[in-house]
Amino acid sequence: MITDAGFELLSLPPVEEPKQSLESGYAGWLGTSWQEDAAQTARLVEREARADWLIVDHYSLDSRWESELAGSVAGLFVIDDLANRTHACDVLLDQNFYAGLETRYDSLVPSSTQRLLGPSFAILRPEFGLKRAQGLKDRRDTVRNILVFMGGVDATNMTGRSLEALGGLLPPDCEVDVVVTPSNPWRTHIASLCDGDPRLKFHLGADMAELSSRADVAVAAGGSALWERCCLGLPSIVVPVAENQRVAADDLANHGAILLARPETLEAELPALWEQLLSSPDLRQRLAATSAALVDGHGAERICRSLMQASGNR
């Protein structure tokens, strides 16, 4: 995809023997030491191209790695949302919503670092902004179209569990778009669930902008797709399917942008939340307005302008 779009792709040498045991937690995801990775990256960048910006998006990397690369590029732009380690960068992006977001990185980045914080910087594909420009739906209308999407992998089968928990609570005349990806290990099971109910339409990959714009409500995971739904003002029951989604989901629920169902108590919580969502047009409209106010689909443009301005000031 990268090369087809006309961009050059530089690849690091493969790791001969994965060294996952080097460090625990996120640090082990790198598969090698940060020193080796930094040295390989520096050699590649210095040999092939003098970059204006190096964009770093990896939970295993921190200020140690970034400091090693500082002399090889003009600027360092770090994407993070954990706020659990220090960074040595010129610009930092955290596109998520957190209580206290403005001070979250105070002790983690230099005072000179420009911080791009919050969902107004959410990086969305252009089609979501285009759909939004066509106008947002009135969420007080009758619920007929429902979206279920639990992310790219859904290793714990939140899709199937959600469909089974809703059971007979689905309106008889509704249409439910159930989206999974080829990476979903439960896709065959989910497809069989959909085959057994004419209201359930199984999608192995889909145009998410189209499905989200036509949906009246959603039951879906956290993660980056959450901001796609917010952009289109889609009232959602959100299930955080990964540990790094939990804090943001809690804070969004407290802000009134989503309803929250916890994965460990999904079967107990989802039916009541579902009945609440479907029975209250005003609640759907409040969720839609609050979520849509967070994301307008122009986050990538704001980031680009910030980087161009920072380049011009150097």
Explain this structure to me?
With 314 residues, this protein is α/β, with parallel strands linked by helices. The chain has two domains: 25-123 and 298-313, Rossmann fold (3-Layer(aba) Sandwich), CATH 3.40.50; 126-292, Rossmann fold (3-Layer(aba) Sandwich), CATH 3.40.50. It contains eleven helices and ten strands. It has helices at residues 34-48, 63-69, 126-133, 158-166, 187-195, 208-214, 225-231, 246-255, 266-279, 281-292, 299-313; strands spanning 54-56, 76-79, 91-94, 114-117, 145-149, 175-180, 200-204, 217-221, 236-239, 259-260. The protein has a six-stranded parallel beta sheet with strand order 7-6-5-8-9-10, sandwiched between helices. Strands 1-2-3-4 form a four-stranded parallel beta sheet, with no helix packed on it. α1 (34-48) packs parallel to α2 (63-69). The longest helix has 15 residues, at 34-48.
Question: What's the short version?
Answer:
The protein has 314 residues and is α/β, with parallel strands linked by helices. Helix content is 36%, strand content 13%. It is built from eleven helices and ten strands.
